[in-house]
Cyclin-dependent kinase 4 (Silurus meridionalis), 313 residues
Amino acid sequence: MRFSSASREKFRSTGNPVMAQDGDVQYERVAEIGGGAYGTVYKARDTESGKFVALKSVRVHTDHEGLPLSTVREVAVLRRLEQFDHPNIVKLMDVCASLRTEQETKVTLVFEHVDQDLKTYLEKAPPPGLPTHRVRDLMHQLLCGLSFLHSHLVLHRDLKPENILVTSRGQVKLADFGLARIYSCTMALTPVVVTLWYRSPEVLLGSSYGTPVDLWSTGCIFAEMFMRKPLFCGESEADQLTKIFSVIGLPSQEEWPNDVTLSRENFSPHNPQPITDHVPELTNEGADLLMKLLTFDPLRRISALSALEHAFC
């Protein structure tokens, strides 16, 4: 089942998905281009327009009344965001739904296709890497997209170079936030969000979290733009925290969250290290911004909007 043209028009005007019985034939798969926690991603061709798109699917539990209201709401949020046509958010072009079993529906989001992600972009950069002015431009665009999402109460929760697209003209577009939202909408908040190397301390500790998780990930990505390799490469949650504390220092007992089972005493004492010891290419302004992004306490971590006003950006 797929949304018919009439159904899609109703969805665009109401934000409510309506399934139709005309088959998922408009999008012809060309190649598999990725996968992750939310399923496989395909490059496909829109047989009506001839344009390439990205198909990203997730399986959603179906109750006796159809799709859960929470899923409908999440899809509606994505469609409302699309009305703003933000230059740093990948465009959601269509939504398809197919009933796999009586208990499960596959929801497919159809996005514009961009050939290159930030990981590939950084790998292609000639030695010694990106110049500071280019990093500044990429960061400004990334923060613009993130500020837009957060202003509409949307958390990305899986920011990493593979989920940040860069067009041939150098335009940054945040991707994959939609699947993260839909995948999690019927689940309790779980620490299995954000690829390990980009997870914030509060997620690693199993504490409550909100929009600051995306700013921590942004800080890790910021450092990687200069280093061309991840800043913190842990092999487990505990190892990831150890590597983080070896750079930013072990937080004080007063800063340690109360709602976690892991004790501060499990970690060796560390004093904060100059961030330029690890990312020597940073300017003074860049180092200041990075440390504001890599602040342990999420309530003191800089917001996307404030980061846009920082001297580096």
Q: What stands out?
A: Confidence is low (pLDDT under 50) at residues 1-23, 186-193. The first strand starts at residue 27 and ends at 36.
